[in-house]
Amino acid sequence: MTSFRVLLRQRTYLESALYVIIAGALAALLLHRLLQLSEVAEKTAMEATVARLQSALYVRAAKAVLEETPLDAWKDRNPVEIAHAELPNYLGEFDHPDLATLEPGNWLYDRGRHELVYLVRRAQNFAGGADPVPAIRFRLRVERTRSGSYSPFLLHVVKPYHWGPGGE
Fold this sequence. Notes:
By secondary structure, the chain is α+β, with helices and mostly antiparallel strands. The chain is built from 2 helices and 7 strands; from the N terminus they run H-H-E-E-E-E-E-E-E. Strand 2 and strand 3 (about 115-120) form a beta hairpin. The termini are far apart.
């Protein structure tokens, strides 16, 4: 009987170890998926912010056109200021900022380059840009078409980027 109990206890330890290994593998898989979803959520929030800012700029542009105010005065100005937008994670304006010293996940305006910058927090699947840290730069452009109307796109990405699983 003693040998049977020893054999039963060994099998129980073996089963417990197998359960721990399976649970650990599932937890690692879940953590990896949650990190991917967190990155997708950040990208979606950044794109939603750009869309809101673009919409606010459209409203300001329409008002300026109706008042017959030239949009050329917008050149080299901060789009957040022009749109009167309040971004919760906006750090403000900087003259030639050192992006590596700033907190990722925030927006800022680079006065030296006249660009709105988003500092990417979760950059596992991020590629592109020209900065030493993962960042997306936007420039406000006011362009007229041949007919004299203004181009519908005010915020332009300065350097192309890919962000997301599979290079979306």
